[in-house]
Amino acid sequence: MYNRAESESLPFGQEQALEAIEFGLKESSADVTEILIMAERTDLTRFANLAIHQNVSEISYQAFFRTIWCNRVVVIESNDLSRSAIKETLHRSQELAGAVSPSAIVPDFAHTVRGKQPALQDEMVTFNPATAACGLESRAEIVNRICGVFRTHGVNGSGNIRVQQLEMAVGNSAGLRRYTPFSIIGLIVTATDETNWSSGYNNWIGRDIEASDPEGLATVAAMKCLMGRKPKVVEAKPMTAILEPLAVAQLLFHLNYRSLGLFGAKSAGLRENFIFDHIGKTITSPMISIHDDATTEGLVPMPFDFEGVEKKCLELVTKGVAKGIAHNLTTAIAFKQSPTGHALPPTSEFGPTPLHLVMDAGDSSVSDMIESTEYGVLVSRIHGFVNPLSSKQGYLAGTTRDGLFLVENGRISGPIRNLRWMDRIFSAFDTVEAISRARKVHFTDELWFPTMALVPTIKLGKFNFVDVQRWTG
Amino acid sequence: MFDLARKLISMSLDMGVQFGEARVVDQTQQIVNSADGKASISEIRSYGFGIRVLVDGHWGFASANLSHQDQADQVVKRAISLARAMPKRSRTARLAQVPVVKDSFETTCQQDPFGMPISEKVEFVQSITRTMSAASDLVSRTRASLDFRRETCYLVTSEGTEIKQTLTMSGLAIAVVVEKNGQVFQRAYPDRHGDLSTGGFERVLALKPMEAAKQMVPEAIELLNAPSCEPQITTVILDPTMLGLVIHETVGHPTELDRALGDESDNFGPSFLGLHMLGNFRYGSELVTIVADATRPGAVATYGYDHEGVKAQRFPLIERGIFTNYLMSRECAADLGLCSNGTARASSWNRIPMARLTNLCLLPGNSTKEQLISETDEGLYIETAKGADIDDKRLTFSFIGERGWQIKNGRIVGLVKNPVIYGETPSFWRNCTGIAGPEEDHVTGLAGCGKGQPWQHIPTGQGGPPTRFEGIKVGGGIT
Does the beta-carbon distance from B89 to A147 stay under 8 Å? Predict the structure, then answer.
């Protein structure tokens, strides 16, 4: 394993990326200039009904030129890094600068080199050639193993395997030069039994293919699917809910940029951020601690953000107290804080965003949680489509998915139809009764770099279920 | 660029593919933004090429930046090797037959947004935010954005089709935040996602943004002080933005055939609409006819041809309440022995085409908004779509609007903020009891509907006139 790219198949390469950055910075006549290059090779194999139906490969790169002219900020994104295109982009930036307004707050690029000049490449191990070498035959073989598990259990199945080689290079006129390659493998498996209205799901992501366990993932999904056959209707009402890691991760993703944006400064700037409004105050149970740490074992590591700022461990909620939100170079000045190393690319709509979420473990187990429940539900997963009702209140609505089970008198009594829920999430977390020791990594993939969460199973004394899926066709 | 696309196809045929489809795409986007009176501009340009091939019935797709066109042969080889590496158990694709086309299409723009001086566009958004800022001391944030997009696509297939298509889109989004005593309300126009259309700057002017800006501040202040919505079962009348979002989620996505066949089960889910329901399932009341119309002038998903070279069409998804058609690509149409209905689109050069929503329109009735309200004993008229969620099979949903007008005995009697409607797709549409006429018809353009792996975000249109539904669960409690 290496901390540098030693695969010839890397989409761009360190030398070429840095050469383009040097050329652009030299050519720029702006007061300050930042150039970010994101290169990508993504190979994805997708299957449905136990057969591969999609095999795609993409090699691409994007470059972001952020220039500041008398406090006027211009951003241009292009995928042409020829010298003539770079010159043209910088010339266009100057043209546009004449039309934009001066900003009261501009990013402080000098911050990135203040104190100790960061090394071009971090010591952090971000690239594993074995992962990058997972070619199409290997992906097909993994699909075959997953489908084999599904066939053995007599269920239908779908899913995908994504192998990515990413490169990120940042340079600015204050002297920063940083580069890192990434290798990432992501697996998604869904077991289905359409006749019996049942499904099971699992996902995993990592830097190292050696750590993947396709059969294990598929087995969990298949077992959920088998357990979930012929679900019954149970009336929706506020009740005890044991949320498994996939469900907890989904809630964190939606508290994050996917819905409410509570972990970043953008919504705070819009006066719509429940965490920011309560910094220093208790917002939920002291059993709940959530932070962001890009060095967490099991998550795909990332040494610096898209502005080249070192990633810091960021406390979001500690023992129930709201502690902080993510900042980039611009919001740090606006909020009189230090940047936390959570910038996204400059054209992103989301503002600074944590990508490595961690919820602290407890000392319980899922079986203990079930045994201690008189009446409640075991929630395997929350559907990714969630309604962001209020950032000001941390209020979300959504549905369960891929396995919902009734728990009665200390045991699982059977599968039930999906429920609709609607709750203020930190109020729901305030009712937490137990948290598991065991935690799992799950991910969501809307952004160029995945958003991951290492999370336990949690038992909530009360989660507000408001409706049930009744329709059976 | 045709030369590159032809070269890709020629190379792929020389290498033995049974079908090839090459696209060379150049995309430009310009966003002109004014936030609290400060103007900013972002420009994005992306161009590249992709080739999709069928070898022994198996798909392969590869793509690269246009600057790598000297490596075109490598890209073709990669696509073919992906197809050849498919194991025997892989699905074998067949394609519905389509006529060979040699044609071009271009969006008509009365005022080309990319030809306008940038200073004019900056002044336009700044005048909107100035107007809102000056309207009240309670205004804390203002934002106005213009979004202009142009895509030129050269499509060449091994069957002989050659199409050049240039689409231009123009859009607008406005928002104002008012604050008082710790209470905050954000009012958006035309809705939280803005409104994108095909056409030039004239499409932005048609939205009458200055008139909207003048109204938004007093509306936001009124909502700041309004009560939240109480839980109830009642009649709701939805404005075109709310209706559009409901159509998008409860009709658009479930009628995508690839979803119904299970291809999206690993992502946002399948569909409740099984194949056995086609042609006989009662989706809605007799009043409900919803068409997918990729020919509607000015709507955001209006084009000449889809990305498989199939001519844009207008066809019913639901006709007089009965489910009559899926949205289909060539591949999934062949699975049903049907023809493609021209809805396969790709978000860019580096993505494959798949069945997508076009412009989904509820056909107008013969009522009016005023008449719908006057006929309602008790209910809510809900405006300005704000958010939504729906389950994986597209059945159980919630939709939230910014503003709800309380109706009693046929008259508006009060205002609530953030009303939420809940329901289940078939029972909701079967309770449709009135649709306003064509004068009040409006289709809103959503800039980015997500689907697929890797993700593809693509513009879609959806809407219709104000429409009434009875016996709907409503709630809120959101301050």
Answer: yes
Residue B33, strand partner residues: B40, B145
Q: How many helices (H) and strands (E) does chain B have?
A: 10, 23
At position A172, the amino acid (one-letter code) is N
Backbone dihedral angles phi then psi of residue B77, each to the nearest 5 degrees: -60, -40
Maximum CA pair distance of chain B?
A: 73
| ipTM for the whole predicted complex goes beyond 0.90 | yes
Is residue B298 over pLDDT 70? yes
Q: Kindly list the residues from chain A whose CB atom is less than 8 angstroms away from the CB atom of residue B261.
A: 48-49
Average of per-residue pLDDT across B258-286: 96
User: Cα distance from B161 to chain A (closest Cα, Å)?
Assistant: 23
pLDDT of residue A9: 63
CA atoms within a 13 Å half-sphere pointing along the CA-CB vector of A171: 18
User: In the predicted model, what is the mean pLDDT of residues A358-369?
Assistant: 98
Nearest to B395 among A46, A159, A471 (CB): A471
CB A397 within 8 A of CB A387: yes
**Tokens encoding B288:** 């409900």
> What global pTM score does this model have?
0.96
Cβ contact, residue pair B350, A58, below 8 Å: yes
The secondary element (H helix, E strand) that includes residue A237 is: none
Instruction: Kindly indicate the confidence band of residue B151, based on its pLDDT and cuts at 50, 70 and 90.
Output: very high
Sign of torsion over alpha carbons B109, B114, B115, B121: positive
What is the C-alpha to C-alpha distance for residues B18 and B41, in angstroms, rounded to an integer? 46
Check if the beta carbon of residue A379 is closer than 8 Å to that of residue A360: no
| Preferred mutation among A62, A79, A233 to probe B, highest tally of B CBs within 10 A | A79
CATH number of B2-224: 3.30.2290.10
Report residue A10's pLDDT band, with 50, 70 and 90 as the boundaries.
confident
Give the closest of B90, B398, B453 to A44, CB-based: B453
Q: What are the structural domains, with CATH classification, of chain A?
A: 14-221 (3.30.2290.10), 239-468 (no CATH)
